[in-house]
């Protein structure tokens, strides 16, 4: 895969380039800020751009850069890396797009397998959300959602967590060792219990629907 | 040179003691958490070097283990950094920072905050005053309601369904910014905080 990256910390940037190359990806360029990345990608094509959220242009150059990249290159995948897994930033990431986009903790992409899996899912138009954050959102939803989430079965909570990670039905089935058919049934039940419209069950819309549900009344943004 | 009389129970003295207690506490957290963990990791790496030389053991598994340990170190450092000044408070203000805080607590907390920023000192004092109150809560089923508004004088912060006994601590924290509190109800009730600012 062709990857471009922008990260202002030189040590982490160099480490990431080495890991990407070890994973067999082609690093088409790396920069220390968002503006240089935009210039670079105007000349060189890439499949996925990796961006540090907190880098120049300050304060969160990764997000503003990504908005411009999404407008200029709609097919380009975007992976945000951050020191923090916070719902506040996740919601801002999802406003940029809910397809071919990802948000992960820096230290959680430190293996060839995880890094490649994350990049592949993004290239395949999926959304990738840091599992730690997805778990926290499901375990600690906003105050007025707790009773409803508590009414889900254990299996339904597992499915909800994997949905909140952005996984597609096939991915959920693989993780839980059940058939895709069973996953569909669980998802239908979850949507009924949460009172979400069934048309939101379509993959890209449902990540947003589920996350907005878990966060609502807690965050008007 | 004239000294004011020593007043061990005075509010100002109390505030100063609290300030230094907090600093000591942070130092201890750094030492007991990340520092010890990193020291232990150097030993684990030494062991790994020996295993690699001898060609024994499951190197891949050991390395993944070490990465897991490093993740824990980073989480501990983030938690301590947040006790110094939360990054989200600095970048996005009281609403987002309090919402994030609420999402990490076992007690249900609802945050209703208007967008908009206050002076950094006001945001800092208000955030840590709320933290004090929330941390002191006994596990209860009642949802804590927090509202943050701007009124004619500055910041208006209301904490509903909290232990009003915490009012004294909150009052201590905000007084040096010229703020005032009002307590409504005894036991579990409301603490109203007002801090003047631009």
How do you describe this structure in short?
The complex is a heterodimer of chains A (221) and B (198). With 221 residues, chain A is an alpha/beta fold.
Characterise this structure:
The complex is a heterodimer of chains A (about 220) and B (about 200). Chain A has helices at about 10-20, 35-45, 60-70, 85-95, 110-125, 130-140, 145-150, 155-165, 170-175, 180-195, 205-215, and strands spanning about 1-5, 25-30, 50, 75-80, 100-105, 125-130. Chain A has about 220 residues and is of the alpha/beta class. Chain A has a 6-stranded parallel beta sheet, with helices on both faces. In chain A, helix 2 (about 35-45) runs parallel beside helix 3, helix 6 crosses helix 8 (about 155-165) and helix 8 crosses helix 10. Chain B has helices at about 10-55, 60-85, 85-90, 95-100, 120-135, 165-175; strands at about 110-115, 145-150, 155-165, 180-185, 190-195. Chain B has a 5-stranded mixed beta sheet, with helices on one face. In chain B, strand 1, helix 5 and strand 2 form a beta-alpha-beta unit. In chain B, helix 5 packs antiparallel against helix 6 (about 165-175). Chain B is elongated and about 70 Å long. Chain B starts with 10 loop residues before the first helix and ends with a strand. The interface of A and B includes residues 83, 142, 143 and 144 of A.
Strand percentage of chain A lies at 5-15%
Distance between the termini of chain B: 37 Å
Instruction: Name the structural class of chain B.
Output: alpha+beta
Number of strands of chain A: 6
Residue-averaged pLDDT of chain B, rounded? 90
Brief descriptors of the model:
heterodimer; A: 221 residues; alpha/beta; 6-stranded parallel beta sheet; 53% helix; B: 198 residues; alpha+beta; 5-stranded mixed beta sheet; 56% helix; 18% strand; elongated
Chain-wise SSE layout:
The complex is a heterodimer of chains A (221) and B (198).
Chain A: E1 2-6, H1 10-22, E2 26-31, H2 34-43, E3 48-52, H3 61-72, E4 77-82, H4 87-96, E5 101-105, H5 112-123, E6 127-129, H6 131-139, H7 146-150, H8 154-164, H9 169-176, H10 180-194, H11 203-215
Chain B: H1 11-54, H2 59-84, H3 87-92, H4 94-102, E1 109-113, H5 120-135, E2 144-150, E3 154-163, H6 167-175, E4 180-184, E5 188-196
Parallel strand pairs in B: 1-2
Antiparallel strand pairs in B: 2-3, 3-5, 4-5
Helix pairs in contact in B: 1-2, 4-5, 5-6
């Amino acid at each position: 895969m062709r990857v471009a990256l922008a990260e202002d910390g030189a040590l982490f940037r160099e480490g990431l380039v080495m890991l990407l190359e070890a994973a067999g990806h082609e690093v088409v360029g790396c920069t220390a800020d968002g503006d240089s990345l935009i210039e670079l990608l105007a000349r060189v094509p890439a499949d996925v751009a990796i961006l540090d959220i907190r880098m120049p242009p300050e304060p969160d150059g990764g997000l503003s850069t990504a908005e411009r990249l999404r407008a200029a290159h709609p097919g380009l995948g975007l992976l945000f890396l951050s020191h923090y897994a916070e719902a506040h930033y996740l919601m801002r990431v999802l406003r940029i797009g809910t397809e071919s986009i990802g948000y992960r903790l820096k230290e959680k992409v430190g293996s060839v397998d995880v890094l490649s899996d994350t990049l592949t899912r993004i290239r395949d138009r999926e959304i990738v959300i840091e599992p730690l954050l997805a778990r926290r959102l499901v375990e600690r939803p906003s105050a007025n959602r707790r009773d409803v989430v508590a009414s889900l079965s254990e299996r339904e909570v597992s499915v909800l967590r994997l949905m909140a990670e952005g996984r597609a039905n096939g991915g959920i089935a693989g993780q839980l060792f059940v058939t895709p058919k069973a996953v569909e049934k669980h998802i239908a039940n979850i949507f009924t219990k949460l009172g979400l419209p069934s048309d939101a069950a379509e993959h890209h819309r449902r990540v947003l629907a589920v996350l907005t549900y878990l966060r609502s009344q807690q965050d008007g943004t | 040179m004239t000294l004011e009389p020593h007043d061990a129970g005075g509010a100002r003295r109390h505030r100063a003691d609290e300030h230094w207690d907090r600093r000591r506490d942070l130092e201890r957290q750094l030492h007991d958490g990340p520092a010890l963990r990193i020291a232990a990791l150097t030993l684990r790496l030494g062991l790994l070097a020996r295993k690699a030389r001898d060609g024994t053991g499951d190197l891949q598994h050991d390395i993944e283990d070490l990465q897991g340990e490093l993740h824990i170190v980073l989480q501990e450092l983030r938690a301590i950094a947040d006790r110094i000044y939360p990054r989200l408070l600095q970048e996005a203000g009281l609403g987002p920072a309090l919402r994030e805080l609420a999402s990490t607590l076992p007690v249900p907390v609802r945050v209703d905050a208007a967008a908009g920023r206050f002076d950094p000192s006001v945001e800092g004092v208000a955030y840590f005053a709320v933290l004090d109150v929330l941390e002191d809560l006994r596990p209860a089923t009642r949802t804590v309601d927090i509202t943050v508004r701007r009124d004619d004088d500055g910041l208006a912060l209301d904490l509903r369904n909290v232990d009003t006994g915490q009012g004294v601590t909150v009052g201590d924290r905000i007084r040096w910014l010229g703020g005032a509190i009002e307590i409504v109800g005894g036991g579990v009730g409301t603490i109203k905080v007002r801090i003047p600012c631009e």
